[in-house]
Write a structure and sequence with these properties.
It is built from 33 helices and 32 strands. By secondary structure, it is an alpha/beta fold. It binds adenosine-5'-diphosphate and magnesium ion (2 copies).
């Protein structure tokens, strides 16, 4: 197979081979759009290069032939005259990784070509700017020199010339910059910068391939779950120049608003600028309307192309364009990144416009992003006149956090549990880890299409960009705007929906989600097979869950009902010597539990509510011996009696365990301190009766935690049936209460065929099942080493977030199969945190369970993920 394809040689349908950018360039060429000519070296070639540790030697022959075709087609010459061709060499993987990998512009320049370029353009400023940019990018990208070496030179020259922007430097200054850049390169990499254009091209292509494995690219792939072995394509394209005088410029546009989804074109345009100046947010750009005033013809042509591309791709497109001397060129197009709200709005609108069908619309929205829709915004009563700064509303939502000025700091603080706002003049791909760690991002430069804005939207984080009055001094750890300043560690509130920034923390309110969401979720509900239930412990959580579309409560954890003031009552039940005191305490607890359960059953009237009997490790209920002894010492010193404390301490000592997580918890506690579980069963039956008598349709189910052996379940079931029978006899009502068990121990999964005979339902408690299968304590592991495990690639993902298919998943599969064989009426659900994770939901769909149960804010996402799983399986 050839190593490369001209843009005009294919129709651009093979994204795997050409990468997203190459496929788009070929597609646009075939549609007759004004794309500068060029060719794409395939991802296959990159994979060969990665495997062999060097590019295939026959590649260069093919490149020479492609260059000859390019010269023929354009009537220009590479490395010669009278009209020189300069080239851009750009990476482009199958999945878009904006700014993650490397690009080299203006390649093919040396002192001779410079002369030709001056003659051709009549503009020495332009020619020297191209030259210095080339040396700078080659030094940075190909030779790996520190970008700040070059930035420092430019800074000095700007100061010397007393200008704010590189574009205002004179041709002489740019010549000086070029020479100093060359000296910097020569000093650090003698002979590293070839003057022969062909050698430059070979160096650049090789570097683009290696950029697949830079730290930031690897990090980006990890965050976005992109496989490491795809490789990137390299696109070699004739340069067009946005900096060739005042009738030139460069820009980025979107066919709809990426922030809101509104059907309005959106774009940034920078006159007299090249390539990355817009994305880097170095100057604040003009709008498309302003572009229309400067270049009416190009503007109209661009709008026509935008609309054509959107119809062609049936999706919102993100387009890079350049105007060279009043002629428009299109340099890239791809499906644009968007906020969750915009994704929902566009998907529904496009169905209404007849552009896509419902299934496509359901597939267009990332399930995990729906949580963003419930992100807070700054309350209306907060006075805008108090804003510290205002910028571009780049990614919606409000965020409150402590100010940090570097990405490394952001990571350090986040690991300490701090919420941080990353404040920068602009962000670059090297800030990806800091942006991931921050709760919000604020920059003083750049528009809605700057790196900071694009990446923040992709991550679903609030961001304000281009806050022009803000002066950020990273070195000094402070930023100033108007007469105010903020320093590292200060609290800051940003609102990415309006662009406002406030010092300190201001009131935020929950938003209303877009009306289109219900429509989209309705379509998802028609498609999905899996039901979505909720994990909710209180009546108000249950009501919220029901609002989000929960079809039941899959897990109501009663231990949370035992905390606070009730804790002492529980302690009396466990520790008391006196039967009488214990009985009073139990009665007291029963009374409050009845109220808890009534509330849940009422909120979910008509839908199943699975109440799980008590399950915390015992030590969470008992006072700490350490503290008791401390108190005793204080009392003894003060001459107070210590008998009670003494006796309590002895009792606690009796129950003490070395390893409480593997100890007397769940059903074991239920069997050993038997009045506790019985009290809970009685309270639940009582609530059931009350709700029935009130005319409701309560559907109570009771679940036993931590069963390892069927005998544990049999005994608990007998006990519960006694209570149900008693409540039925007393009320004269017919009561039906299904009894089931968590499957959260490997032994339970492996003996599911026996357990199923005593159960009406199973609920896979995959949090504990993961801990027990891996032999890992989650809290300890996540705090201590799990991140390192993932950084080092030992674990591909966190098994507590995404269900481990091979191990834990296998236990679930075996248990589901053998459980159903033994008891065909068995209902199967999954209630671990995995129940809200889209990847895990896809697996649960494959396994054919009946439902997943997750926390209320994740329910909408789970409904969507379940539909996507059903679509993927078709
Ligand atoms: P990314 O993948 O980060 O978008 P690109 O490879 O698209 O990076 O290019 C970086 C910048 O260089 C973009 O702004 C792009 O428009 C510009 N650029 C790329 N190729 C050319 C070209 N042939 N002529 C002019 N500008 C170009
Ligand atoms: Mg691009
Ligand atoms: Mg558990």
């Amino acid at each position: 197979m050839p190593h490369l394809f001209d843009f005009s040689a294919t129709d651009g349908s093979d994204k795997d081979l050409l990468g997203g950018k190459g496929a788009g360039l070929a597609r646009m060429t075939s549609l007759g759009l004004p794309v500068p000519p060029g060719f794409t070296i395939t991802t296959e070639t990159c994979r060969l290069a990665m495997n062999d540790g060097r590019v295939p030697p026959d590649l260069w022959e093919e490149v020479d032939l492609a260059l000859a075709r390019l010269e023929d087609m354009t009537g220009r010459s590479f490395g010669g005259g009278p009209i020189p061709i300069l080239l851009s060499v750009r990476s482009g993987a199958k999945f878009s990784m904006p700014g993650m990998m490397d690009t080299i512009l203006n390649l093919g320049i040396n002192d001779d070509v410079l002369e030709t370029l001056v003659e051709w353009s009549g503009d020495p400023h332009f020619a020297w700017d191209a030259y210095r940019r080339f040396v700078q990018m080659y030094g940075d990208v190909v030779l790996g020199l520190d970008a700040s070496l070059f930035q420092d030179v430019l800074l000095e020259l700007r100061e010397e010339a007393a200008v704010a922007d590189d574009s205002e430097l004179s041709a002489e200054h740019l010549e000086a910059a070029t020479r100093r850049f060359q000296a910097i390169v020569e000093e650090r990499r003698p002979g590293g910068l070839p003057t022969d254009p062909r050698e430059q091209l070979q160096g650049a292509i090789t570097a683009v391939f290696s950029s697949w494995n830079t730290k930031r690219a690897i990090e980006y792939r990890r965050i976005n779950s992109i496989p490491d072995d795809l490789g990137t394509a390299a696109n070699v394209q004739m340069m067009v120049f946005g900096d060739l005088g005042d009738d030139s410029g460069t820009g980025v546009c979107f066919t709809r608003d990426p922030g809101t989804g509104a059907r309005l074109v959106y774009g940034d345009y920078l006159p007299r600028a090249q390539g990355e100046d817009v994305v880097a947010g170095i100057r604040n750009p003009l709008t498309l309307d302003q572009l229309g005033e400067l270049h009416p013809k190009c503007h109209d042509q661009l709008l026509e192309i935008m609309s054509g591309l959107e119809t062609h791709y049936r999706d919102m497109c993100d387009i890079e364009f350049t105007i060279e001397r009043d002629v428009l060129y299109i340099l890239q197009t791809r499906p644009g990144k968007r906020t969750a709200a915009a994704a929902v709005k566009m998907a529904v609108a496009m169905v209404e416009e007849g552009l896509i069908d419902r299934a496509t619309a359901v597939g267009r929205v990332a399930p995990a992003s729906l949580e963003q829709l419930h992100r807070p915004r700054i309350a209306d009563h907060v006075k805008l006149s108090n804003a510290f700064a205002t910028g571009v509303a780049a990614s919606p939502g409000a965020a409150i956090g402590k100010v940090v000025f570097s990405s490394d700091e952001a990571v350090i603080e986040e690991r300490k549990g701090e919420a941080v706002i990353l404040v920068r003049p602009e962000t670059t791909p090297n800030d990806i880890h800091g942006m991931a760690a921050a709760v919000g991002i604020l920059t003083s430069q750049g528009g809605k299409t700057s790196h900071a804005a694009v990446v923040a939207r992709g991550m679903g984080k609030p961001a304000v960009t281009g806050a022009a009055k803000l002066v950020v001094d990273v070195e000094a750890g402070m930023a100033r705007a108007g007469g105010n300043e903020i320093r590292t560690g200060d609290l800051l509130t940003i609102d990415g929906s309006t662009g406002n920034v406030f010092i300190g923390s201001v009131d935020v309110v929950a938003p209303e989600s877009p009306p289109e969401l219900q429509q989209l979720l309705g379509w998802a509900d028609e498609i999905r097979v899996l039901q979505v239930w909720a994990n909710a412990d209180t009546a108000s959580d249950a009501a919220a869950a029901r609002n989000f579309g929960a079809q039941g409560i899959g897990l109501a954890r009663t231990e949370h009902m035992f905390l606070g003031e009730r804790l002492q009552v529980v302690q009396r039940i466990i520790l008391s010597d006196s039967e009488e005191e214990r009985a009073t305490a139990l009665k007291e607890l029963e009374r409050v539990q009845i109220g808890d359960f009534e509330g849940l059953l009422e909120a979910m009237d008509g839908l199943p509510v699975v109440i799980r009997l008590l399950d915390p490790p015992l030590h969470e209920f008992l006072p700490s011996r350490f503290e008791l002894e401390h108190e005793m010492r204080l009392d003894a010193k003060a001459g107070r009696p210590i008998d009670d404390l003494q006796s309590m301490s002895e009792h606690v000592a009796r129950w003490e365990e070395d390893n409480p997580m593997l100890g007397l918890r769940g059903v074991r506690l239920g069997l050993m301190v038997d009045h506790l579980y019985r009290m809970q069963a009685r309270a639940a039956c009582h609530a059931l009766v009350t709700r029935l008598q009130a005319g409701g349709h309560p559907r109570l189910e009771i679940m036993i935690p931590l069963v390892a052996d069927v005998e544990e379940l049999i005994r608990m079931r007998e006990m519960i049936e006694e209570e149900v029978a008693a409540a039925a006899a007393e009320s004269g009502l017919e009561l039906k209460v299904p009894v089931g068990t968590m499957i959260e121990l490997p032994r339970a999964a492996l003996t599911a065929g026996f357990i199923a005979k005593a159960a009406d339902f199973f609920s896979f408690g995959t949090n504990d099942l993961t801990q027990m299968t891996y032999g890992l304590s989650r809290d300890d592991a996540e705090g201590l080493f799990l991140r390192d495990y993932m950084d080092q690639g030992i674990f591909a993902s966190n098994p507590f977030q995404t269900l481990d298919r091979a191990g834990v998943g296998r236990l679930v599969r075996v248990a589901a199969k053998e459980g159903r064989e033994a008891n065909p009426a068995l209902t199967l659900g999954l209630c671990g945190e995995h129940g809200g994770d889209p990847e895990s939901i896809a697996f649960v769909h494959e396994l054919g369970l009946d439902y997943v149960s997750c926390s209320p804010p994740r329910i909408e996402g789970a409904r969507l993920a379940a539909a996507q799983a059903a679509l993927a399986a078709d």
